[in-house]
């Protein structure tokens, strides 16, 4: 590598400072978005969990054969809903979901199962498209304007239709979920079929209530809401975790830029000192030659 002059080093330092200002600003933006997203997430989680518990409990009172989404079949065909971000600059946020998906798909294929992917997020679409995977649907740029129940109702309708017509035997969601402000985790959840666990305590508790007009009618309505809202929650979880991941990544980038500036400042000072020393030597040599 050619030796840099003090002027070149100074330009490099200025370039790093400019980058540092950008990463610092992006961290602040992500922190603001994270606070807003966490408020939405805190409002979403309790409803989602209570809705699942209610459907799980009601499923104990009905014949599972009366509703297509409750019928349990051998899992020979599986639909995987892969949720990533639309943008990068968030560390390993997207790669965690992609790597887990690849691992699960490989495992299922080795077991002789057919796997179909429904992709949400530009990063998932860019990675899996045109690579030989069976893709049901692709959705990009949904977080800004389309992350709502209207969108999840559309996606949920596609998944429900496939399960009811036995095009698939199980539907799974894979996405990142926020654990703490500084950590997130890739989670895989089964969307349906719902497989309730018979609990004597739950059965005793529910037996005290009268369900009108009937458990079947109530379950029919709740199942529609369940699919839509679980998809919505997965999007909110992913969006919140993305902001946290980007905030952490930009914080690390800002600190790394600061350390790089320190290193290059030392190099600049050494280069400047060498230049001064060289000039002094030239002056002394010139003076000696004149004498």
TrEMBL record:
Membrane topology per record: Peripheral membrane protein
Subcellular location: Cell membrane; Membrane
Location (main, coarse): membrane
Keywords recorded for this protein, A-Z: ATP synthesis, Cell membrane, CF(1), Hydrogen ion transport, Ion transport, Membrane, Transport
Pfam families the UniProt entry points to: ATP-synt
Domain of life per record: Bacteria
Cell membrane keyword on record: yes
SUPFAM superfamilies the record matches: ATP synthase (F1-ATPase), gamma subunit
Complex and partners: F-type ATPases have 2 components, CF(1) - the catalytic core - and CF(0) - the membrane proton channel. CF(1) has five subunits: alpha(3), beta(3), gamma(1), delta(1), epsilon(1). CF(0) has three main subunits: a, b and c.
Function: Produces ATP from ADP in the presence of a proton gradient across the membrane. The gamma chain is believed to be important in regulating ATPase activity and the flow of protons through the CF(0) complex.
Similarity remark: Belongs to the ATPase gamma chain family.
Protein name: ATP synthase gamma chain
Organism: Persephonella atlantica
